[in-house]
Design goal:
With 168 residues, the chain is an alpha+beta fold. Helices cover 35% and strands 36% of the residues. Helix 1 runs antiparallel to helix 2. It is elongated and about 70 Å long.
Length: 168
């Protein structure tokens, strides 16, 4: 059984990867149409990079259950690419922790002259962390981080139905 939840990349990673694909494609087309540059090897390497980046762009994260073992997985069109085992033996409950996931790529915090000219690249989104814990709440293990509230409900229902964990 599997449940595919949401995109594997956050907004900034997704945006940067699209820009990288565009730049690599422009370079590939420039090299391919050049009269002076005739290296098929470099064009092939660029083409493989573009395919690889585009594949990363299409990946989604989710949960996968096989033989009673729960996995956090990365899917590509429903096929499992990467799976990490989540040991649920020592845990009893599933908790939901809400917060804000924030990324800030500003580099010049120490230099005030440069900081005034830098754009604010901070992107903040609501984040939901699904955690499993024991009865005394002293042992916690992260399961998955999601940003969409409707996908959180689907993930918790999947975990509760297919493991011995109970929802808090």
């Amino acid at each position: 059984m599997k449940v595919i939840l949401e995109r594997n990349l956050d907004f900034r990673q997704f945006q940067n990867l699209i820009i990288l694909i565009f730049c690599c494609t422009a370079i590939l087309l420039g090299l391919h149409n050049s009269l002076e540059f005739q290296s098929i090897i470099i064009e092939l390497v660029l083409f493989v990079f573009i395919i690889f980046f585009f594949t990363i762009l299409l990946t989604k994260k989710g949960l996968y259950l096989k033989n009673g073992i729960l996995y956090k997985t990365v899917f590509l069109y429903g096929f499992v690419l990467i799976k990490n085992r989540i040991p649920v033996e020592n845990y009893e409950k599933v908790l939901l922790l809400a917060g804000i996931l924030s990324t800030n790529y500003n580099d010049s915090k120490k230099t005030q002259e440069l900081h005034n000219w830098e754009p604010d690249l901070n992107v903040s989104v609501k984040s939901f962390l699904i955690v499993m814990t024991n009865e005394s709440l002293n042992l916690k293990k992260r399961i998955i981080r999601l940003t969409k509230p409707d996908k959180v409900k689907i993930a918790i229902d999947f975990i509760v139905e297919n493991t011995n964990l109970v929802s808090e």
